[in-house]
Amino acid sequence: MTHGEKAKAYFEQGYNCAQAVTLAFAEEMGLDKDSAAKMVSSFGGGLGRLREVCGCVSGMALAAGALYGYSDPEAKEAKADHYALIQKLAEAFKEKNGSMICRELLDGINNDTNPVPEARTEAYYKKRPCADLCYSAAEILEKEMLERGTMGK
Q: Is the pTM of this model over 0.85?
C-alpha cells in the first residue's frame, strides 16, 4: 500500500486531513499511531478549521520535518536546505491541486470556520476533495523519499 493510499484510508476512517497524511508516515517517523495523531490534530481544516494552509500540506511538512529536519538552532545551512524542501513540497502540492489554502480548495463547498466539524456521512465524502488531497500530499512526500533513497529506512 502506498503512502497516498494509507493517507486516503485514514481520512476515510475519520481522521482529519493533517492526521491522515502524518499517520501514513508514522512508522518511518518512529511514532506510534496515537502520538502521531495527537501531535498533528490541531492542523485539520486549515489549522483548527480556520481554513488557512491545508492540513494535508501541514501533515506533509510535519512528516518531512521528522524525516529530514534539523535540530541545531545554529545550523543555518541545514535550516535553509530544509525550508527549500518544504517550499518544494508545498509548490508540488499547489501545482497539482491549484492551491494549498483550505478555503480555496473547498470553494463552493462548506468552508465555514465553525469549530464543530461536519458529520462524516457518505454525502460528506462525495462532495469534498479532502481524501484525494490527502492522497496527493502523501504521494508527493513518498516521491521525495524515493528520490532521496530513504524509503524503507
A: yes
